[in-house]
Amino acid sequence: MERLQKVIAESGYTSRRKAEELMLAGKVKVNGQVVTELGTKVSDSDTIEIDNKILEKESKEYYIMNKPRGVITSTSDDKERKVVTDLIPTEARIYPVGRLDYDTTGVLLLTNDGEFANILMQPKNGIEKVYLAKLEGVIKGEQINKLKKGVELDHVKVVPSRVKLKKVNQEGNSCMVEITIHEGKNHQVKRMFEAVGFHVEKLKRERIGVFTTEGLKSGEYRKLTPKEVAIVYSLKK
Ligand code: URA
To answer: What is the domain-level CATH number for residue 151?
Structure first.
């Protein structure tokens, strides 16, 4: 069940605020009854009418992208920079699930299905996000252990489920570390490494749950299969 104004907004008909105005003006019906109560919730099986016309719901679309560097994870940008939705030609009002920084690359999912996005983003569902970070300097066992015990971000302790040193470069001035987390806080991986004294030079998200960039070059995308969508729904707790 979702709020009526949200369902109207997600159909692409109008914004959530305009939908609320239409409701208050008595122009919205659910199953033939005028609804003016802004908290009203509806389900997929309810018929919504606006000005006596049935609201067509946008069909759900699901994509996976290998996000390139230099693109904003958003649907629009006030400085006219390129955004991830510019890379996928569709009429559907898709948006990115969570955020990758401008300079971060790797797995990004996009959809117009709010429930699907919520399942992936809620830490309680335990969906792993695996990142490969190139660090300036070489991390030691002691610092990895500190990270593994958890660091405080936004007054909350975050504990990675795995941290693994993968490689030290030949000159011995940088290294590659794989880190697995469940949350999606702003700049989380960069801030976690900063908390133990390391600057992240490069960051790639290698995996979210079962999704990897396998078969996708930088900037490429594909639709998810119905089976892949069902896997995400099966992870809801
Ligand atoms: N953590 C970060 O610091 N940046 C990202 O883009 C993703 C996770």
So the answer is: 3.30.70.1560
- Does residue 132 line the site of ligand 1, with CB under 6 A? no
Rounded Cα gap, residues 115 and 119, in angstroms? 6
**What tens digit of pLDDT does each residue of 31-76 get?**
999 999 998 999 988 999 999 999 987 789 999 999 999 999 999 9
Same domain, 115 and 67: yes
Query: From ligand 1's centre to the CA of 33, what distance in Å?
Result: 46
Range of the domain at 188: 128-208
Nearest-atom number in ligand 1 for the CA of 192 is 3
- Predicted TM-score of the model (pTM): 0.85
Q: In Å, what is the CA distance from 227 to each residue of 60, 103, 195?
A: 14, 31, 39
Considering its fold, how many domains does the chain have in total? 3
Question: What CATH number does the domain containing 230 carry?
Answer: 3.30.70.580
Task: Give the integer Cα–Cα distance in Å for 4 and 31.
Answer: 12
